[in-house]
Amino acid sequence: MNVDTYRALRAHMPSAPRWAPSLAQLAVNALLLSAALFFYGFDGPAAYVLSQVLAALFLHHSYLIVHECAHNSFFPRTFLNTALGTLHGVFALLPFQVRKAEHMQHHNLSNNLDHEPTLQRAVDTFHVIERSPRLKALFNVMWRCWIPILVINEHIRLWTAPFKTKDARPRRVRRQRMSVLITGIGVALLVLAAGLSNAAAFLPAVYLYLALVEAVNLPHHFDAPLYRGRPKKLWEHDAVTESCRTIPFVSKWLMMNFNLHTEHHLYPYLPWHQLPEVHDAMIAKDARYAPAHGEFDWNVGMRRRSFEEVFSRYLSEKPSMAA
Questions:
Q1: Inter-residue contact 98 to 180 (CB < 8 Å)
Q2: H/E/C letters for each residue in 261-314?
Q3: What is the pLDDT of residues 246-281, one digit of tens each?
């Protein structure tokens, strides 16, 4: 997208989040949790399976609330975004301040092999896997069985990053370490309040949640071009992201329009409920912005392929010195 088109679209977009849509999302979040606990109280495998699916949707919905709060675009007040992001970070198993810093970095440096640390770590990891026949065979099984090893690895890194960082800004490091501590205490209190047996009974929901995070996130950047050199300007981010098709009701109320990822990267300060308006305006100007696939069908196609096929372009890049 050129800068003139970008500015013309932006000129008609209000950027402040509205209270009503976000309060409605909190109601959806509470409804998912209540429904999960309601069905968990019944005997029988059908009720248990339904409780796990609903709990997984609740956890993923909390993940999306954390995402919006990281952009300060869920509520009009920054302190409310921080408080709500911290609370829902407990459910999403994400220290809010660490996730926020990592995510802002991702927005600035998406798909840049020289500057985006998450991408370079992925390239290093894929090279380590490629050099070991056993790891490659194991990864192939996990990939084809929808085991979310990539997201599990990234979650672990977010919990440990503040204690390994070389960041020269001590206040930022302290804030992130405090976020890890608060989130850890929150998770521990949840487990204690529920009881170990009840908490363990929801482990399938945690697995489904992590699998959902991986399945939803990968299509947005995986096929977009990798590049080196100068990080792209905001209006150039349509080159490094892809949107996915909208599913009526689901995309709005369960996914918070997260599928409209190109629009989100072009205008990262816009709240979730304004992205469809941007999407329609972009397609009106250029039909190539119409999504080519959905998250589910993308994953179904990719999960049938081997490690070498799926990650070949990452393996063609040089690993960092750390690898």
A1: yes
A2: HHHHHHCCCCCHHHHHHHHHHHHHHCHHHCCCCCHHHHHHHHHCCCHHHHCHHH
A3: 999 999 999 999 999 999 999 999 999 999 999 999
